[in-house]
Amino acid sequence: VRGKVSLKADEYLEKIQSRVKRMVAMIDGILAYSQVEQDLSGQQRTIDVGKLLHNVLDLLALPADVSVEIMPEMPTLEVNPVKLSQVFSNLIGNAAKYRNPEHCKIVIKWQNKASFFEFSVSDNGPGISPQYHDKVFGVFQTFNSNPEVESSGVGLAIVKKIIEARGGSITLESTLGEGASFRFLWPKEAVNTSEGQ
């Protein structure tokens, strides 16, 4: 009887720990979401997006089965590097988290689009059904059926808020079973601090 009680207690403790971790992740996510517009124009400097991406990858420390291909000659931007790093970190991190179990390939590209640069983060993962394309950017929206994958459901909402606060936009192109591609427009011009953005 003692053995059964001990096993049951261990099981309950594991569930409690898992729920506490999720709650902490949600609270952290809410705080990050609420602070997006703070300091958006502060600490702007000229950065090479290619170097920024390599720094993001170093910090993410992705698993060995994840390969990332970065298009050469990434542009240079006058930007708050923390915010752009946050965008790329969330998009790359999501691609790695919900990856193809055999091998995950992430490709990052860019295009010149008038007053914007268009960046894309694409993967060969399980994809997202078109009916959820708008919903993935909502707060607390997760569409992952694997209970072992921890998610606060705030990451893409933060990404969208950062990009839109800059005057850009983000879209998702994906079909279930055929990977996903997140494309976002980032203005070439620096945020005007006199406008209080």
Structure overview:
The protein has helices at residues 2-34, 49-60, 81-97, 155-165; strands at 45-48, 66-70, 76-79, 104-113, 116-123, 169-174, 180-187. With 197 residues, it is of the alpha+beta class. The chain has a five-stranded mixed beta sheet with strand order 2-4-5-7-6, covered by helices on one side. The chain has a two-stranded antiparallel ribbon with strand order 1-3. A hairpin with a 5-residue loop joins β6 and β7 (180-187). The termini are far apart.
Low-confidence stretches are 145-152, 193-197
Average pLDDT, all residues: 78
Number of helices, where a helix is a run of at least 4 consecutive DSSP H or I residues:
4
Tell me the series of helices and strands, N- to C-terminal: HEHEEHEEHEE
Report the count of strand segments.
7
Report the structural category. Answer: alpha+beta
Main β-sheet: number of strands, strand sense, barrel status?
5 strands, mixed
Summarize the structure.
By secondary structure, this protein is α+β, with helices and mostly antiparallel strands. It is built from four helices and seven strands, in the order αβαββαββαββ.
